[in-house]
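for the recovery benchmark. tokens below, seq after
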């Protein structure tokens, strides 16, 4: 019998790619997963998809959404300035979803979290078990709380760092705004883990559908990190930003942005290592451990 998979956040950046990855498995032949989408708004009309109407901010609406489900792939999250909504979706919504999954006898819960639960770096060759959680923003605090709910239920937590690809609303726009403010490239050799969103989505699906029983928290990034200079070069080329003159040093960049706190925040994040490893585990679920993936190849066509 084909496994039945519930996906939350299926209309979002990561969740949308997870739905597509599951669709590829369905098209690959018999035994592909049956997919149920948890939707707050209008039902999805894609062929082969079942829709469950519910809202993570209203726990009572989740009753029954996991009935008959084997796997929950929880990709929904809220990122924004509204701390109350952030906690309602990320923390309280996840807790209610996990409770419903446990009640329904779901065999595996996979939660897509973020390395931001560790707070500000530097992190160099950091393994999941070596780094304490120290979330610094309301969003990351709520997602750390969501992680606890999933882990306490025996689920799996996946922590990517920079997620790149079609639909990205954070990394490329943030680096692009920084470069536009600087009007120049940046010379900086700190290192940042990254993952192409399609690779992340396939890993999420693989973990959920695995015959093994993975548990705990794991990093999901390509094995080789990118130097900040490589990231900046790739984004400037992707956005066709004019970058005349020599690259700026960090000191020169900070001086130029002294009256731009939002851009200084982006700069400070890039100025220290955020390099997370879990290579043996990643190789087992992604199959691309030997592949030298570049940032530019993850960005695709503008």
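predicted aa per position
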């Amino acid at each position: 019998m084909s496994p039945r998979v519930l996906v939350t956040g299926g209309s979002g950046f990561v969740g949308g790619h997870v739905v597509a990855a599951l669709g590829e498995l369905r098209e690959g032949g018999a035994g592909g997963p049956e997919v149920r989408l948890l939707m707050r708004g209008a039902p999805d009309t894609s062929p082969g998809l079942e829709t469950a109407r519910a809202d993570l901010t209203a726990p009572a609406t989740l009753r029954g959404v996991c009935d008959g489900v084997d796997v929950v792939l929880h990709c929904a999250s809220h990122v924004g300035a509204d701390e109350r909504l952030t906690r309602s979706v990320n923390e309280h919504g996840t807790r209610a979803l996990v409770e419903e999954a446990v009640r329904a006898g779901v065999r595996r819960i996979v939660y897509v979290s973020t390395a931001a639960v560790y707070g500000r770096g530097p992190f160099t060759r950091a393994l999941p078990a070596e780094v304490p959680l120290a979330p610094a923003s309301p969003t990351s605090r709520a997602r750390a709380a969501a992680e606890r709910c999933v882990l306490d239920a025996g689920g799996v937590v996946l922590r990517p760092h920079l997620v790149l690809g079609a639909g990205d609303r954070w990394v490329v726009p943030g680096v692009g705004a920084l470069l536009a403010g600087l009007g120049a490239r940046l010379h900086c050799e700190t290192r940042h883990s990254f993952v192409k969103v399609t690779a992340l989505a396939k890993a999420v699906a693989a973990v959920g559908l695995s015959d093994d029983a993975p548990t705990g928290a794991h990093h999901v990034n390509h094995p080789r990190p990118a130097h900040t200079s490589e990231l900046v070069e790739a984004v400037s080329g992707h956005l066709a930003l004019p970058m005349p003159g020599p690259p700026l040093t960090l000191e020169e960049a900070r001086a130029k942005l002294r009256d731009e706190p939002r851009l200084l925040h982006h700069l400070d994040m890039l100025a220290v290592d955020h390099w997370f490893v879990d290579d043996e585990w990643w190789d087992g679920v992604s199959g691309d451990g030997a592949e030298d993936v570049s940032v530019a190849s993850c960005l695709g066509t503008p």
